[in-house]
Amino acid sequence: MAGALGYHSTDPERGARLCFHLKPGSYDTLGLIEVLEQMKVFYRGEDVVLGWDGLSAHWSRAMRAWVAEQDWLTLERLPAYAPELNPVELLWSSLKKRELANLAGDHLADVADATEQGIHRINNNPQLPWSFLTHTGLTIHPPHPPNLRKDQ
């Protein structure tokens, strides 16, 4: 699975957004480029800043060349051994503790269905995606997202 969690910095009232991609096998550079192409559609061509860990496919020569041709995408490298800075790690943790806990499906479709249910659960609670973002401790704008303001 590949996932992304983002928000509109110019219009935070629109809320945080999750997207994910599932395929058999592992992701290589070409598979991740396919994910990014779908992400471009998902975010409707808006500017995207993507924080990525040091996975070799994220920073391969082919990936860097492809990204250099994209005017909508900026990549930022997360520090090594710092999963706490990646909000998607909290997404995976939430799914593993609920929908995927003790799941013994016979097919990849069972995992996909359970994951999709989890994504819907998280999207239906607007505070969860924001909490994943704010838990990283990274600066986000606005500092208190609309559904997590301290005065509420």
TrEMBL record:
It comes from the Bacteria. One of its GO terms (molecular function) is nucleic acid binding. It comes from Streptomyces hundungensis. Pfam families: DDE_3. Residues 17-100 form the Tc1-like transposase DDE domain. This is Tc1-like transposase DDE domain-containing protein.
